Amino acid sequence: MIIKKPYKIVGIIKDTPSVFLFKFKAEDGTRLSYEPGMFAMVFHRDADGKEMGRAFSFASMPEDETLEFAISMIHGRFTHYLDTAQLGDAYYITGPYGQFKMDAKEGDKVLYLAGGTGLAPFLSMFRHLSSKGIRQDMALIYSVKHPDDIIVKEELEGYNDSLGLRTIVTVTREENAEGWNGEKGHIDSAMISRHIADIKDRTCYLCGPLAFVKAVKAALIELGVDPKEIKADVWG
Fold it and tell me: pLDDT of 213-226, one tens digit each?
């Protein structure tokens, strides 16, 4: 039997125009044991006892006292409740779930590819690596619609020093991208090749919506990456 434990919202941060960072803490003070990359089910329970749940990847690291999720406020059935959420509100969480996990070995060559809030499980991974002092030969190619959609921008920039992370951001919609000097367009084999010369030597983790994951996986295979070295997680 799956037990839904009560959690309180202890933090709400508007990080981008459409993405909020929600932090939850268990009412009984215990910590949930999970690995970076996994996800939880978060449930809202209304006054009549009716429940609605949705899966979210952990953005927090296992060492944290709170669970953090990067949630795109798309005004769906579930995020409708979060639109008006306040500190102290109760939600119910189960988990962890999933096989999308990081093999954190010192010096490994890794490429992370994220679309939108698909960055969340990688944040969990980066935070964990940083807390443990593990450095890898690592790069991130991150796809967002607009420049102001970059989640935890300053934190990502900090990983350049603390982890040696090379971050390449690409903007897929040119409206509102005036002054943007980075990559533009969807991630494809040509873009990957421009930045990652040794792609065949890397383990690749990718996360985002289904269309994103399918297209990026096809691009990696086109470049000769062994399918066994492609770890994918899909949301939406």
Answer: 999 999 999 999 99
